[in-house]
Design goal:
The chain is of the alpha/beta class. The chain has six helices and ten strands; from the N terminus they run βαβαββααβββαβαββ. It is globular and about 65 Å long.
């Protein structure tokens, strides 16, 4: 069962859940980060909701069985950096070899379009956008980053994150998405092409990774909704 809700729409989640005819699901979001409601208010809401569900004889889906895309939260930091490091350790994701600290990661990416794929009760993939320039004329151009934990590769998570990221990017005024990947990384190349990216060209021997000169493949996706 797939769910997608914003952290700040927690109360709306219960209304949606109660209106469902068969299933009810609760995302494991930190109570302290629910806008406009105290912890006591949320505890009371949880109790009342669970009581109504039990009286209705409905099924409560365990948190660990939920698969969903949600907004990234600061409590995800350790998981995000761990997943990032796994990608870097593959040698095919980036010229970087070590994941940055959380403050550096935060400063690199736009504050919007930070998404997490949650499965088994934890983040197992993430997507974010980084600005490509400080110049105002390029404000609608952003670089894509998508990383999935090793154990969860091959399950279509990257594709789901890409779909959501494109949607969020356009909602935030981004008209062009950019990616720079190693040509040998065919899985990532195919992911981008499936989602409407085109190959712009190859930058030959552009930089070294661990003493080896590498080419990079440039891809871009121009929005048909923003800036047309």
């Amino acid at each position: 069962m797939n769910c997608r809700y914003d952290f700040h729409e927690f109360p709306a989640l219960f209304l949606t859940v109660l209106a469902d005819k068969e299933y009810y699901c609760f995302a494991p979001w930190p109570k302290s980060n629910i806008t406009g409601a105290s912890r006591q208010d949320i505890d009371r809401l949880l109790f009342v909701t669970l009581f109504i569900i039990s009286m209705a004889g409905k099924t409560l889906i365990p948190v660990k069985s939920i698969q969903m895309i949600r907004n990234l939260h600061h409590l995800d930091a350790a998981s995000i950096l761990q997943i990032y490091q796994q990608g870097l350790d593959s040698g095919e994701a980036s010229f970087e070899t070590e994941a940055p600290d959380w403050a550096t990661w935060q400063s690199k990416y736009h504050h919007f379009c930070r998404l997490v794929w949650e499965q088994d009760g934890k983040p197992v993939g993430w997507a974010a956008l980084a600005p490509v320039s400080v110049r105002h004329c390029y404000r609608g151009v952003a670089e894509v980053s998508i990383y999935v934990a090793d154990r969860y590769l091959g399950q279509g998570i990257g594709s789901k994150l890409m779909t959501a990221l494109i949607d969020e990017a356009e909602s935030n005024g981004i008209w062009s998405l950019y990616a720079s990947i190693f040509p040998e990384n065919q899985a990532t190349r195919k992911l981008h092409l499936r989602h409407g990216f085109r190959e712009v060209g190859i930058r030959e021997r552009i930089a070294q990774r661990e003493g080896r000169w590498r080419d990079t493949l440039i891809l871009e996706r121009r929005s048909g909704k923003v800036g047309v």
